[in-house]
Amino acid sequence: MTIAIAHALRTLREDSGISLRRVAKKAGISAAKLSGLETGDRRHDVTILAFLLGTIGVTAETMNRLVNLAKCADKPDFFDPAGSYEHILRSGFERLSKEVFEWSPTLFPRGLRSSNYSRAIQETSLPHPDTATAALVPAPARIWTDKSEPLFTFLIGETATSTANWPMDVICEQIEELATVSKLIRISVALVPTSFCPPGLVEPFTLYKNHRDTAFAVAVKHGQGTAFLTNEESVKDYAKIADWLRSGIREEPWP
């Protein structure tokens, strides 16, 4: 979790407009030490982190979230029951990623949804366990040209294209949107047939791969919460599942 805290600290400082040297001086630490804290090369002491955040001028809510994460930094796994830490953790993992892989078995990923599809979801009372955070969606990926930015790979279950729950025109518009987005440089979108992976067989998850093409973290949806896993065994298991899902990709994805 250290890299997520480091990314958040740097982002908050840069957003505040305060230089690294100025914050370090106010906190009574060297610029080199603060730089290490912002890159994740140094462990975040809770007291120093709180002081740095106070110097930057963050809200009490943001400070509490980051301090709580710092207290759990040595644990390989973290469960976020209400989505309070999701943006911080996902953003931090994305920073280290060469590829962000998302499996969405029954719904189109939030960041790729058309306005009418999003409205249709809001108007129904059906449970949607694979609703992802808006922060994951690569709105920036739609304009990225820098190849150092991660590739976002979306695999979508065929169930998402069903008209059983959504009007035909809504689904058609959504599919047209995806067909357009899938042509963009930093986004890849593909469909997995229900015959290959039926709904309920594999829960929604997001896998993060670093620049050595090695998976290092996974986010798994559990009801309204998300489990963020970095233990080696779990990450390897989900990496294998991701490869298996890729093997089932439909060649002509959009019906």
Q: What does it look like?
A:
Residues 9-63 form the HTH cro/C1-type domain. It is a single chain. The chain is α/β, with parallel strands linked by helices and 255 residues long. The chain contains nine helices and seven strands. The chain has helices at residues 2-16, 20-27, 31-39, 46-56, 60-71, 86-95, 115-123, 168-181, 232-247; strands at residues 77-80, 99-104, 151-157, 187-192, 205-209, 215-222, 225-229. Strands 1-7-6-5-2-3-4 form a seven-stranded mixed β-sheet, with helices on both faces. Helix 1 crosses helix 6. The longest helix has 16 residues, at 232-247.
Could you give a quick summary of the protein structure above?
The protein has 255 residues and is α/β, with parallel strands linked by helices.
Attribute tags:
single chain; seven-stranded mixed beta sheet; Endonuclease, Chain A; 434 Repressor (Amino-terminal Domain); 7 strands; alpha/beta; 255 residues; elongated
SSE arrangement:
Elements: H1 2-16, H2 20-27, H3 31-39, H4 46-56, H5 60-71, E1 77-80, H6 86-95, E2 99-104, H7 115-123, E3 151-157, H8 168-181, E4 187-192, E5 205-209, E6 215-222, E7 225-229, H9 232-247
Parallel strand pairs: 2-3, 3-4
Antiparallel strand pairs: 1-7, 2-5, 5-6, 6-7
Helix pairs in contact: 1-6, 2-3, 2-4, 4-5
CATH architecture of the largest domain: 2-Layer Sandwich
Rg over C-alpha atoms, rounded to the nearest angstrom: 20 Å
Low-confidence residue ranges:
126-146
User: Major beta sheet, specifics?
Assistant: 7 strands, mixed
